[in-house]
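Q: Got a minute? One more chain.
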Amino acid sequence: MKTLSDEELTNLAGNYFAPKGLYRHTKGLPFLGSLECNTKTLIAGQWTELIVEYTVGASGLADGAWIKGTFKFYSDWALFQTSDPKEDNYVSLEYTPGPLHEGQTAATVQSLAVRFDQKGHERPFQKAIIVIIVDGDMNPGDKITVRIGDRRWGSRGTRVQTFVEDKFLMRWYIDPVGTSRFAPIKPDIAFPIKSGPVARVKTITPRVVRPGVPAPLHVHTEDIWGNATADLGNLKAEVKLIKVGSKAEVVQTKTLPFAAQGWTVMNDTYEFVKDGDYDLVVAVSVDASLPIPRPLYSDLHVHSDDTVGTNSTTYNFSYAKEIAGLDVVGYTANDFNITKEKWEHTLEIIKRVDSPGEFVVFPGTEWCGNSAAGGDHNVVFLDDPKTSQPEFPFDKKGNVARSFEWNEDGPAELIPGAWPLDEVYATYAHSPESHLLIPHVGGRRCNLAWHHPQLERLLEIGTAWGLFEWLLRDAVKRGWKLGVSANSDEHRGRCGGGVPGTAVFGTKVGLTGVLADKLERGEVAKALRARRTFATTGERLVGIVRTDNGHLQGDDVFVKDNEKLVLRYSFFGAGGYSSIEAWDASGRILHRDLQKEAETHATASTPRKIRVTWGGARVYDRYREAVWHGSILLPGAVISHIRPFGGVLHNAEDEIKQFSQNQVVFETRTSGDFDGVDI
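A: Always. Here it is, folded:
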């Protein structure tokens, strides 16, 4: 009802008693209340105190009413606690009554209860600070102050999420009458989270190229959490191209400026004439026998804010090309989460940014089935969307091609579509050459009891969720002929370059190497379906296996009885390999311990070294992180120095340190990967 004048009230209601002036005051308030926050911008990973003040609206708050402060589940903002005010990430509440009008009854609330729940609301706003009004009510105009990371007892505050976001949202919901049904308090609390100061310089090149093939060079700066820094003027890079050898010949020197606005990035191209090893901070090898011009690097599992990612689709594609230096990207929409309108809008973006010879983008979806129904499978549409419309969200016959639709704007009822996995096979098996299905492990682990040999050509064995060598062994043991893929499954806006945060994304994102003749959609698609791929843990590593007659990894090779088959392998890296292994369904069939081989060639003066590694995951499923607290004691020995390696190098909060002259201590986390230290 509109706000009534005194005359209108008298005419309609007659004579009655009410607190003086309260009617007009109440009608002037937002019904569900209002929010204020002390923060306008934050730096990724910083420690801060966030103060949110909620003013009760015209609704008032009943005994048992709820308020929730929520944010998205993939944020790795440090987990809050409500038990110890002296510890970090403590959340406290304060109640301040508003001024009373003449004749108004004071609020009767006796206390406020608070707790934190990682799944306290609906996806994507699942993480929730929950406030409950206890034993009484609250009046319009009363205030609740929520201190997130309360510093008044000496803590550092709360640690902000470690990745940048153009518009971080904290959405507050209210149940003013205690019915457990919530409405959003508008507007959201929103602020940007920006990158911190420069902590390192990253140089990205192909690891190996043929002579005469242009090799792209990407250089950018990052903060301590692996975010690309931005808006730093007057920075320049001196790039030296050095021919590795006894003379370490400097072939070329360039001084190149970084971009002054936007990302601090510089891109260039080099061409190598002669075979050999070259240093561009990272190593580059030139090999005339390479079966392709150069390996292509791809991330086939990229989310954006269309569904459960961070920042826009355009931002993510720009990051992939400019910062991560990727050649190929596979856009991925959670099939139940994407709306038809957003899907069609993203297809138009893909049509614009796809550039043969420079940057290839495939549209795709993630079929989000539970493990009992087949588990997560990415569907990559290989045909050009300019000429062939992907069969989503409906197939050519008009059947639903998604698992179901369930999102913020979605239907009230959950109705299954293509479910279980058998029906996904039935949807796309009519044209296997136009599709690529990739089983993977994320939140919903794929189930390899299902397998379609024509559609499923690659298996995803590494993402930000973890490393899954066990999945590859399972596939090999079952006899499934699958190539390998490693991608980002990136929810944090850093496809091809994301490093671990402090939540469920526990490892550096992977890369899929593609052995294609050209950087063109058709050639890349053909190589992917031919299983001519390799998977890396995010570094520009290269693995190539071939036969003398030109077969490459992924090819079917027919061998006669008693015929000898020679496999020649080339592995290119930077930091050194520990071992090389080959497996088949019977188990491990080849093992080279390169550490031991190095020992046999070491001189007598070489210092003694002990290598200790630890790793693995707690479970196969979503919350798999294993937490390690350990000590390595060397009685009677003196430690000269230590060199940590593995995933610990990518996480600013993990630590391996020398504690004394004969002790090393560590606190790290692994998600199927490993950490280690050379002592």
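A: The radius of gyration is 29 Å.
Q: Perfect, thanks.
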